[in-house]
Amino acid sequence: MVENVIEIHNLTKKFDNLVAVDQLSFRVKKGTTFGFLGPNGAGKTTIIKMLTCLIRPDSGTALIAGHDILKESMAVRRSIGYVAENQGFYERMTAAENLDYIGRLLDIPTTKRQRRSAELLYWVGLADRKDSYIGTFSKGMKQRLAMAQALLSEPKVLLLDEPALGMDPMGAKEIRDMIIGLKKDRDVTVLISSHILPEVEAVCDEVGIINYGKLLVQDSVENLRHTIGGGMRLEIVLAQPNERVVATLQKMSCIQDVKVEGQRLTIYITGKDEMRPQIIEAIIKSGGQMLSVGIKEASLEDILLKVMEKGI
After folding, report:
1. Helix runs in the chain, H state only
2. I need a surface site. Which of 63, 84, 169, 230 has the fewest CB within 10 A?
3. Which of 139-148, 168-177, 286-295 has the lowest mean pLDDT?
4. Are 184 and 284 in the same domain?
5. pLDDT of residue 308
6. Which residues of 104-136 are buried (b: 16+ CB within 10 A; e: fewer)?
7. Which residues are 261's β-sheet partners?
8. How confident is the model at residue 164 (pLDDT cuts 50, 70, 90)?
9. How many angstroms separate the CA atoms of 218 and 220, rounded?
10. What global pTM score does this model have?
11. CA 53 to CA 258: how far, in whole Å?
12. pLDDT digits over 215-269, tens only?
């Protein structure tokens, strides 16, 4: 049986009359990467702050690595690493001094602290800048140092709040590669909150879409593509509009929907790619002359927009 490292049941948080998190329940399996998606103000950061014991929920329960966030907050803190949206550093410290300082606060023994610091600085690509002041670091370098800092205590769970926010494409790729490496190299369960959808799609095994503090859906991106995003779609340009082609396609059981814009057809397929030859053959037999054929999968953005539109 797969162990759930994060278990949340009916978690609720209010700020005056605003319900930021509304009876939220979900589970995250050990060794997976789980992404929280939603618009600004959906409650993502509030959820992470409750899981890190920075703020207390008004009701509900949450277990991190088997520890209750209300009754065992110190054990929870020892089990997690946390990278905040705007990570604070002592900028007149060097990278090595920063990790040593944090390691002392965590009561990590000297030998282990020094070994872990050197290992992590190498892993995040900052070994050659270990003696440089943090104030000279770029945004991307600071985020990589924040990752090293969060992993210093060898946590079971890593919580990331907008880890690639404000970074250039190269910096965002470095963070993405590190998140992928966490599962492969370190057996760490990751919960990531982000609005950068391609990044989430690239690293997450499962995603949860929230709005107004409520979880609307939770599943793998692949499953959501087929259940919500419409699965795969063909984009075909005909030599000229052809009503007979459209009528034929609309009768096919493997087709969910056909959208027509002049000569352009967008065909939403309920099955897998193996249905494509049958669809192409049906178009040809119906007298359609194709100028181009393209195939696309529903993106995470497509899924998010549909969920938000329907309020699933």
Report:
1. 44-51, 73-79, 95-105, 110-123, 139-151, 169-181, 197-203, 221-227, 243-250, 276-285, 300-310
2. 169
3. 168-177
4. no
5. 81
6. eeeebeeeebeebbeebbebbebeebbeebbee
7. 264
8. confident
9. 7
10. 0.81
11. 49
12. 999 998 888 877 776 667 889 999 998 999 999 999 998 888 898 999 999 888 8
pLDDT of residue 104: 95
Q: Show the domain range for 246.
A: 226-310
φ, ψ for residue 80, nearest 5 deg: -120, 155
Cα torsion angle, 78, 148, 185, 165, sign: positive
Nearest C-alpha neighbor of 17 from the set 45, 58, 49, 56: 58
For position 199, what pLDDT does the model report? 82
Domain at 98, CATH number:
3.40.50.300
Task: State how beta strands 255-261 and 214-219 pair.
Answer: unpaired
> In terms of domains, do 10 and 88 share one?
yes
SS3 helix, strand, coil % of the chain, rounded to 5? 40, 30, 30
Residues 212 and 252 in one domain: no
Higher-confidence residue: 276 or 157? 157
Phi, psi (degrees; rounded to nearest 5) at 236: -120, 135
Q: What is the pLDDT of residue 2?
A: 53
Asked whether 232 and 273 are in contact (CB, 8 A), the reply is yes
pLDDT (mean) for 20-36? 94
Please count the residues of the chain: 312
